[in-house]
Write a structure and sequence with these properties.
This protein is an alpha+beta fold. The protein has one domain (7-121, 148-160). It contains four helices and five strands. Helix 1 (10-20) packs across helix 4 and helix 2 crosses helix 3. It is globular and about 45 Å long. Residues 123-149 are annotated as: Disordered.
Length: 161
């Protein structure tokens, strides 16, 4: 039972994802590993070799369709109301160059969860692209392109903004 004063922080959302959706997180990690198996080395600079194959792998494994339920459970754990039921599409579930972003509008803000499966080295170009979408990062100068690497496992980051 929740009321307006009994709200938990994002750490409760993380706990629920780890405890109640462990198998889903494992599948997300397996999908990321499958993507990297197609790379020539331990990293790539082409976002198209990360995001579209990762999305296809998530969809093919059934993980993509299960992520909205995980998001709803994470929101429930915070004790806050969700404005609308999530679906496996933006803005609720977004596949990025870093992993999967889950977003839910709450009565008093927004829960944002990153299931990080990749590290993005932005090449020191200082373009401020911190949204994980792996934009081209190019400013027309001599900066290096973004480099995508698989991290060990799936890290969960959550915040209420």
């Amino acid at each position: 039972m929740t009321d307006a004063t009994s709200t938990a922080g994002p750490e409760e959302a993380v706990r629920v994802l780890r405890d109640d959706h462990e198998r889903l997180l494992t599948v997300v990690g397996q999908c990321a590993t499958a993507v990297t198996a197609e790379w020539d080395g331990d990293s790539v600079t082409d976002r198209e070799r990360v995001v579209p194959p990762f999305r296809r792998a998530l969809d093919g494994s059934g993980a993509l369709s299960r992520l909205p339920r995980a998001l709803a459970d994470a929101v429930t754990a915070t004790g806050r109301p969700m404005a609308a039921p999530p679906v496996a599409a933006p803005p609720y579930v977004v596949v990025t160059g870093e992993g999967v972003v889950l977003r839910a509008n709450l009565g008093d803000g927004r829960l944002v969860v990153l299931l990080r499966a990749f590290e993005v080295d932005r090449g020191g170009d200082g373009d401020g692209d911190s949204d994980g979408d792996g934009g081209d990062g190019g400013d027309g100068g001599d900066s290096e392109p973004h480099r995508y690497r698989r991290i060990d496992g799936v890290e969960i980051e959550a915040e209420i903004v």
